[in-house]
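Recall that a protein's primary structure is simply its ordered list of amino acids. Everything else, from secondary elements to tertiary packing, is in principle encoded there. The following example makes that idea concrete.
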Amino acid sequence: AYTDSDLVLGIDAVDPRLARALRLRPGQAGLITVRGDSMEPQLNDGDQLIVDTSDRRPTASGRVYVIRVDGALMVKRVGAGRT
């Protein structure tokens, strides 16, 4: 799913109470709007996602990440490869 614009960061991007409930530290959360249907039914066009900007390492189980590919911001399920 492509995103509408870059990740919105800052104090006002995510409600501080919600960030605390999600155990996100100040400055490590952002808000992004999904555009497109490639992640349906899990994510739909127009969904807003809270992004933990401190979590940058894919896990073996696969999680949803916001990634930049050739300048485009995308939301994709990413898993660590086996070596």
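The chain is about 5% helix and 35% strand. The CA atoms of residues 15 and 67 lie 23 Å apart.
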